[in-house]
DNA sequence: CGCTGTCTACCATAAGGTAGGTAATTTGAT
DNA sequence: ATCAAATTACCTACCTTATGGTAGACAGCG
């Protein structure tokens, strides 16, 4: 691995991380290429070298987020054996993403701005949701078998409801500016684990 | 009622309505004073006459939204007697606001952009949530008494969870670009009504 | 040499906002 | 009832800064 190549990857990855943070805290329209450049200590034109247009950035952002997030879900599947443990770990992912109301899941943040995004990005956004809901469905299916989650009707319905609940809980925590609101929003969900 | 005064109120109200639509479809950073002006058929400077700065607009927006929304909730209380009927009407409010994924509750849309809003607006946003959750809590309390909603643990927890669920369902419908996702996100909630 | 990653310098447009003017009304004192 | 003063709701014209984006140069490295 050459130094130059290493530096490129580092810079691009750093820009992506910064952009993610900005987008999740302020929304996709809430930061500019100049913000990214300032933060990374390079010039605006250099940011455009890595991401020609903001549309490209949005796509890279959601693709990267999706990849990292699904990796984490797979890791949960690998390390936790009961449905309840998996569900609690899942909720914890959103709890962390919420950062006490300071931040949101990228997916939630981008959904609001959606109309300004290119078709590729909205498709990736939809795919992210599909994948996560699919994973959750398998958790609830397991929960029906191992009995570690109470009152499961339809696993798919439960998966979709859960997704809605954790995303909504993030919004509530943000609106209230208080981490406790996130906990309150998901309490009925957590209360069902055995 | 003089003609001039009538016209002023009309224009201001129209601007507010337009701004609400824009904010809910594109987020608060997704439209400009120029957009509002074009849409209302007046000049940008005239928009500034009604709302000096965008911060003023954000506050007017959320205040108005809160007023209208709470009115609707009170109307539901006045016309529906069972907790289940009230809950279903509440969900319908969010279903309508979702507009098949094209729009969001103003509160959800503004929460994302929150960091760019003045303190007054974020306070009003928090107050909106507080009020709605309070109303929902009373519905679940009634549900415990009249038995029209199943499996109620703590009314306050249920209220917060419900709020999270309907808001999250809107985000999901938007991300999927499909009204059915909203229904899927709230199905477990609706399924509990008797 | 050719590629990578950065730079300076630029550009057009859009953004939020202000200054000052004007026609039509409304108000208030005579 | 009438007339001046104030107010309302709009206008044109302008300003500053930010924004997304491009062109072209240059240093370092394989």
Number of helical segments with 4 or more residues of chain A: 9
The termini of chain A sit apart by 49 Å
Q: Radius of gyration of chain A, Cα only, in angstroms?
A: 18 Å
Proportion of β residues of chain A? under 5%
Oligomer classification: homodimer
Counting DSSP E segments of at least 2 residues, the number of strands of chain A comes to 0
Task: Briefly characterize the structure.
With 194 residues, chain A is an all-alpha fold. Chain A is built from 9 helices and no strands.
Q: How would you sum up this structure, described in words?
A:
2 copies of one chain form a homodimer. Chain A has 194 residues and is mainly α. Chain A has 9 helices and no strands. In chain A, helix 2 (33-40) packs across helix 3 (44-50), helix 5 packs antiparallel against helix 7 (119-146) and helix 8 (155-176) runs antiparallel to helix 9 (179-190). The first copy, chain A, starts with a helix and ends with a helix. Chains A and B meet through helix 6, helix 7, helix 8 and helix 9 of A and helix 6, helix 7, helix 8 and helix 9 of B. Chain A binds a DNA duplex (30 and 30 nucleotides) through residues 2-5, 7-8, 11, 32-34, 42-46, 48-50, 52-54.
